[in-house]
Write a structure and sequence with these properties.
- This protein has about 280 residues and is of the alpha/beta class.
- The protein contains 10 helices and 10 strands.
- The strands form 2 sheets. An 8-stranded mixed β-sheet has the order 5-4-1-6-7-9-8-10, sandwiched between helices. It has a two-stranded antiparallel sheet with strand order 2-3.
- Strand 6, helix 8 (about 170-185) and strand 7 form a beta-alpha-beta unit.
- Helix 1 packs parallel to helix 5 (about 100-105) and helix 8 packs parallel to helix 9.
- The chain starts with 12 loop residues before the first helix and ends with a strand.
- GO terms for molecular function: 23S rRNA (adenine(2030)-N(6))-methyltransferase activity; RNA binding.
- It catalyses: adenosine(2030) in 23S rRNA + S-adenosyl-L-methionine = N(6)-methyladenosine(2030) in 23S rRNA + S-adenosyl-L-homocysteine + H(+).
- It comes from Moellerella wisconsensis ATCC 35017.
Length: about 280
């Protein structure tokens, strides 16, 4: 089933958290001159128009990036991420939102490589179009993203970052994420892996984390931002990032920036933030 379209949700609070973590990981990897591989298993369309019918129908970005866009005291940790957004918008109006592959394209260096996969028949051509002039660095594939965690790892440079961001349309996605990361880690144990997850039913996340712990993988950091308390009602109350082999300063960076993000995104103060080790090093 491939009915999910991120264009309905682009720029929401979950995207803000995900792309903050993504940009901080990329910036940390750039501190060493040696090239690295960026692998995006569920890349989406690349960029999204916030004035589109899809985005306007849900209006999720209004409680996400639009609230950040209005702030005058944006922390330095957010600068790489925010600068990418500013680069595709004029200063006065927020019309476009970059997906994770677009953010990676803007932040990566000439010597770094991108592998991007997307299966959706509508999103894949849009993604491919974003990278037509970047074929030296980027490989855009209409293939199963989880398979790339086997076939593209380890990278020749032995440095890499994989973002795993499935739609979780099916309950099996939660198990597929763990299997995919486990396969990738067996091939490339020193790589950085970042798993995005939605909190719809907390029990699903607890089960996924338990399965991840059972793999024996170590050095796993959890970062979470909730806009409402957990609920058994319909809808996403929180989202998070599970990062394997995080850059050494990511924990400190997120402890610094997450309270600010929560205050900006959830002015009423509901929900919570979390930065904690699932499995220490």
């Amino acid at each position: 089933m491939l009915s999910y379209r991120h264009s309905f949700h682009a720029g929401n609070h979950a995207d803000v958290l995900k792309h903050t973590v993504q940009s901080l990981i990329i910036e940390s990897l750039k501190e060493k001159e040696k090239p690295f591989l960026y692998l995006d298993t569920h890349a989406g369309a690349g960029r999204y128009q916030l004035t589109s019918e899809h985005a306007e129908k849900t209006g999720e970005y209004l409680e996400g990036i639009a609230r950040i866009w209005e702030q005058s005291d944006i922390p330095a940790e957010l600068a790489p991420y925010i600068n990418v957004i500013k680069g595709i918008n004029d200063k006065s109006k927020l019309r476009f939102y970059p997906g994770s592959p677009f953010i990676a394209k803007q932040l990566l260096r000439e010597q770094d490589k991108l592998v991007l996969t997307e299966l959706h028949s509508s999103d894949y051509p849009l993604l491919r179009g974003e990278f037509l002039r970047d074929k030296q660095r980027a490989l855009v594939l209409r293939e199963d993203g989880y398979q790339q965690l086997k076939s593209k790892l380890p990278p020749a440079t032995r440095r890499g970052f994989a973002l795993i961001d499935p739609p979780y349309e099916m309950k099996s996605d939660y198990e597929a994420v763990v299997r995919g990361v486990h396969e990738g880690h067996k091939r490339f144990a020193t790589g950085t892996y970042a798993i995005w997850y939605p909190v719809v039913l907390r029990q699903q996340i607890k089960r996924m984390i338990s399965q991840l712990q059972s793999t024996g993988i170590r050095n796993i950091l959890q970062i979470e931002l909730a806009v409402r308390p957990d609920s058994d009602q319909r809808g996403m109350t929180a989202s998070g990032m599970i990062v394997i082999n995080p850059p050494w300063k990511l924990e400190q960076q997120m402890n610094a920036v997450l309270p600010w993000l929560h205050k900006a995104l959830v002015p009423e103060g509901t929900g919570h933030t979390l930065v904690d080790w699932i499995v220490p090093e």
